[in-house]
Design brief:
single chain, 256 residues, alpha+beta, Deoxyribonuclease I, Chain A, six-stranded mixed sheet
């Protein structure tokens, strides 16, 4: 089974990019982030013609997540359990397919809104860890994947790309990401590539792609029973070199 995650940075700008990539790579499930459109505007018919059923949790011009699947699935949640009921940001979708639960996430960046914005990011990570704990306690096979907006380790960002005060690398962000690992989740990419740079994002500015000044902020976390089935995990770097690309690339995980 092949599962992928991709922050497309506007599905309307990258609709054909996603269609081409689906035809080329043929994942069973693709999680999308930052679709930047309301659910009714998501181009689901484009992907239905390729054999994929789509479900989107959208928001006008901002955020937004979606699932594309070749397998039948049931939607469990359209918002992260535990968040305040008035939280209007579209950042989470959770589905069940083929005997596993898959959560697609777009975690807050945390650099805007001052300390309140950073506090929202940390609170979101806390709720995510609580959701993981609930699923782990029930021994549910599950995946959490998407744009976490966290560089977990020093190998996960090129030297000089971020100041130490950036929300992606602040100790508080990293500590909450580590909690997910300590609770029993496996970072799929680091399980296969334990050392060295394995980037998933390159800024549009300052020749970051050409100079390979990247970040690893898109992650796939596996529960214990799925970690045992891990075969391969890697970002598709070639996608960043395509015309008019997203600043993120797909991360692909294969399970036997």
């Amino acid at each position: 089974m092949k599962i992928a995650t991709w922050n497309v940075n506007s599905i309307r700008q990258r609709e054909k990019h996603v269609a081409r990539w689906l035809e080329q790579c043929q994942p069973d499930v693709l999680l999308l982030q930052e679709i930047k459109c309301e659910a009714h505007a998501f181009p689901g018919l484009t992907y239905h013609g390729l054999g994929y059923t789509a479900e989107a949790v959208g928001q006008k011009a901002y955020n937004g997540v979606a699932v594309l699947s070749r397998k039948p699935f049931t939607v469990h949640h359209r918002t992260l359990p535990g968040l305040p009921p008035d939280d209007a940001q579209s950042r989470y979708i959770e589905v069940e397919t083929d005997g596993m639960v898959i959560a697609g996430i777009y975690l807050p960046n945390g650099n805007s809104g001052g300390e309140a914005g950073f506090g929202y990011k940390l609170a979101w990570l806390e709720r995510l860890a609580e959701r993981a704990d609930t699923l782990l306690a029930s021994d549910t096979p599950f995946i959490m994947a998407g744009d976490f907006n966290v560089c977990p380790g020093d190998d996960d960002w090129a030297p000089g790309t971020l100041p130490p005060t950036d929300a992606l690398v602040r100790p508080e962000s990293r500590a909450r990401f580590r909690r997910l690992l300590w609770d029993g989740m496996t970072d799929a990419v680091r399980a296969v590539h334990p050392h060295g740079p394995v980037y998933t994002f390159w800024d549009y500015q300052a020749g970051a792609w050409q100079r390979d000044l990247g970040l690893r902020i898109d992650h796939v976390l596996l529960s214990p029973t799925l970690a045992e089935r891990l075969v391969a995990a890697a970002p598709d770097r070639e996608e960043r070199g395509k015309p008019q690309p997203s600043d993120h690339v797909p991360v692909v995980v294969e399970l036997h």
